Each structure stands twice: as C-alpha cells, then as structure tokens.
Amino acid sequence: MGRKNAAGGKRKLIGVLLASTFLAALGQLMFKYSLAGARLDPAYLLLGVAAYGASTIVYLYVLGRAHLSWAYGIGGLSYIFAVLLAALFLHESVTLVRWLGVAAIAIGAALVGSS
What b/e sequence results for 58-68 when a residue is b if at least 16 CB atoms lie within 10 Å of its CB, and e otherwise? Predict the structure, then answer.
C-alpha cells in the first residue's frame, strides 16, 4: 500500500510540474506578444509576468517535495511547450532538426520522470 501511495504522489508532482512548465512557456508567449507591435504592450507584459510568477510559485511547491535533479530534469519540458505555443500561436516555422531536438528532450524528460 505504501508503494501505491508513493506512485500516486509522484504522478501528482509530475502533473503539478507540468503545470509549472506550461505556465513558464505561456509567460514567454505573452512576453513575445507584448513586443509584437510598434511599442510595448503592457497588458501582455503583465500577463507574462503573472504566468511566470505563478510558474515559480508552483515550482517552489514541487521543490519542497521532490529532488532538484528530478524536478529540474522534467522542467526541460518548458522548451517543448514553448516550441508548440510558438508554432500554434505565432505561426513560427519549426525545422525538422528542431523537432528532433524536441523529441530528444521529451525522451530525456520521460527517463528522468521515471527514475
């Protein structure tokens, strides 16, 4: 029964960590939007700061319950989220080499997360 609870706790931490990494990537997207016009858009800038701040708070929660080497390894998924958001919302072209890098990061994060 103890192992089952430990596995459930780890899954919960992974979910919380995924939320943190997504919020960090969303913050980056908002920062980019804030610079899209001829001048700085403070609304998007504040949204980016808020998303980044929320990401940090969630990440601190994870760090209080997990090893840094584990949490930081999974945190690399923020790059994947950033590439996906850039492709979907900014219509940035992503080369095959970059997609291969995204796949390598995903594999690495999966290996770290399973350890």
Answer: bbeebeeebee
DSSP state of 92: -
Residues 6 or more apart whose CB falls under 8 angstroms from that of 14 comprise: 74, 113
Short-list 55, 51, 70, CA closest to 21:
55
**Distance separating alpha carbons of residues 94 and 15, to the nearest angstrom:** 27
**Cβ count within 10 A of residue 3:** 7
Contacts with 6 (C-beta within 8 Å, 6 or more apart), sequence order: none
* 20-34 per-position pLDDT tens digit: 999 999 999 999 999
Q: Is the pTM of this model over 0.90?
A: no
CA distance 6 to 21: 22
Structural contact between residues 113 and 74, judged by C-beta atoms closer than 8 angstroms: yes
What residues in the chain have per-residue pLDDT under 70? 1-7
